[in-house]
Amino acid sequence: MLESCQNAQERWGGVHKLIDRWLQERHELVKAYDVLGAEPQALSGTTQQLQELCDRLVDYVSAGHFEVYEQLNGEAKAFNDERGLDLANTLYPRIDVITEKLLAFNDLCDEGKCVAEKFKELGGLLHERFDLEDCLIEVLHNSHKQQDAVQA
Fold it and tell me: pLDDT tens for residues 52-68?
């Protein structure tokens, strides 16, 4: 998972400060996940590593929903990008479902009920979400960047 995160930074790094910051937050989230994966005993109770993972998770999800997705949609609207808007309308419902599950994981951890099964599920959800987000960035941001270059 960390490798795909680094690949995303290589492809889109430097394109837009907001996306750069968000991809860096993703990288930090993946590192926090990997630390816990290497130390499964840290899942019991409310350890510092588990708290750090949950904090990064909530920050990442919030930045996506309240900053990055709005920016990407705004770009698509500004460029009258019907293809991009259609893609967003197709992907956002699945991202919303994943978001609910990620926040439910956070709530379990807050209650001291984090279990290995839910932690493993979290990894799969993050991987799927990252793939969907990468698709959005590719279509909604990079295509507009190319259009800007052509118009200049």
Answer: 999 999 999 999 999 99
